[in-house]
Amino acid sequence: MDLLLWGVLPYVSIALLIAGTVWRARFDKFGWTTHSSQLHESRLLRIGSPLFHFGMLFVIVGHVVGLLVPKSWTDAVGLSDHAYHLMALSTGTIAGVAAAAGIGILVYRRFKVPAVRRATLRSDHLMYSFLLGAMILGLTATLLNSAGMTDGYNYRDGISVWFRSLFTFTPDYHLMAGAPLAFKIHILFGFTLFALIPYSRLVHMFSVPLKYLFRPYVVYRKRDPEQLANRPSKRGWERVS
């Protein structure tokens, strides 16, 4: 079971992510959208969307640092385990609570506003369930670990090493045997969510409009009132209604 969950399932999830993304890019370009419902309701959206997106941004950064940066690197720069975990706990909790609150507001909005509820797809129910579940489980695992209810488990010596071993295609799945249950379920929810990305509205995360940062300026010119007054009037069929 450990081999199946921690040695095979991650690669299946990533394979579904890559294959689904390529398929949608080739055959479902017009469906590659957020299915925005801003026209139906904007008050709750203005609150929930920034909380969720900015919270998730810091959550992802925290996961990248926690999983990909080895313990030896932080030790080399003089950052103690206590200082590292204190920093990770404070920033991670704030980011996680913000993201969870944001997605909670968005879910409430989707079921409370009739027009938004009618625009909800079947895939949204599944996506929101795993997304919210992964966040709650992540916060639960973090709080249990910080409260000393996981027998002093250090994920940097177990989960992080296992996760990095996936990139070398030699998954050290035995390390996951000693991980607390809350961490295990959180990881399973996360990999399931990865597999669902191409088949839900979450696929829009791969369409970050970076080109807008480098596009030419749009120049607006103020028209001279005298030129407008002296300009010959258009004929009826040339006027724009």
Supply the key terms.
single chain; 241 residues; mainly alpha; 9 helices; 62% helix; elongated
Tally of strands: 0
| Residues in helix, % | 55-70%
Which structural category fits the helices and strands? Answer: mainly alpha
Estimate what percentage of residues fall within beta strands: under 5%
> Which sheet architecture does the biggest sheet show?
none
Shape: elongated
Write down the secondary-structure element order. HHHHHHHHH
Write the layout of secondary structure elements.
Layout: H1 2-27, H2 43-68, H3 71-76, H4 81-112, H5 114-118, H6 122-146, H7 159-166, H8 181-196, H9 225-230
Structure explained in plain terms:
With 241 residues, the chain is mainly α. 62% of the residues lie in helices and 0% in strands. It contains nine helices and no strands. It has helices at residues 2-27, 43-68, 71-76, 81-112, 114-118, 122-146, 159-166, 181-196, 225-230. Helix 2 (43-68) packs antiparallel against helix 4 (81-112) and helix 4 (81-112) runs antiparallel to helix 6. The radius of gyration is 24 Å and the shape is elongated.
